Design the sequence.
């Protein structure tokens, strides 16, 4: 089982004046930051990709937005933060934060290993599919550090898809069995 050095992304959002908030993010590695603000319908209202860096800080002016609930997503490599925030009469309030680090998959022959850090403390499931449909379904224990080995030795040669769900996050890995 392997979990690489990860979980280093930190993100903060704090109001500095009416309708304005500072978004700051740091990480140990130099990579692109992808920042986006979405409404509750999933429509992207703002999107920016930075140059590769370890720190990001910017003031956002939300005065053009109506009162309501929005999502701020900060992506950096295989990690991301989602902040659900409310804008009401110029006041910015963070309602919920969610940190996710994508799972790590490694295939060796007919065995697939997966590692995942369950920061959100979600219920998790894993599925295996081929072209004809679902071949395997399994609920995983709600633990912080998840290490799962999938034995695919009884399957014929071909293309398969492993689907891992954690809360409302879905991760997919295509594999080939020779």
Sequence:
């Amino acid at each position: 089982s392997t979990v690489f050095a990860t979980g280093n992304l930190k993100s903060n959002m704090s109001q500095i004046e009416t309708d304005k908030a500072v978004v700051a993010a740091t990480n140990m590695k130099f990579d692109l930051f992808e920042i986006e603000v979405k409404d509750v319908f999933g429509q992207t209202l703002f999107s920016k990709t930075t140059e590769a860096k370890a720190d990001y800080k910017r003031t956002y002016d939300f005065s053009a937005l109506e009162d309501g609930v929005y999502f701020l997503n900060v992506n950096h490599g295989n990690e991301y933060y989602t902040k659900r925030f409310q804008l009401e009469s110029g006041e910015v309030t963070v309602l919920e934060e969610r940190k996710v680090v994508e799972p790590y998959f490694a295939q060796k022959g007919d065995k697939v290993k997966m590692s995942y850090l369950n920061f959100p403390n979600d219920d998790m499931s894993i599925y295996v599919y081929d072209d004809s449909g679902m071949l395997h379904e399994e609920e995983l224990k709600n633990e912080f550090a998840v290490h799962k080995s999938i034995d695919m030795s009884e399957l014929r040669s071909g293309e398969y898809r492993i689907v891992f769900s954690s809360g409302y996050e879905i991760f997919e890995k295509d594999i080939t069995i020779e």
Q: What stands out?
A: The two ends are 23 Å apart (CA to CA). Residues 122 and 142 are 7 Å apart (CA to CA). The longest strand covers residues 20-31. Residues 1-5 have pLDDT under 50 and may be disordered.
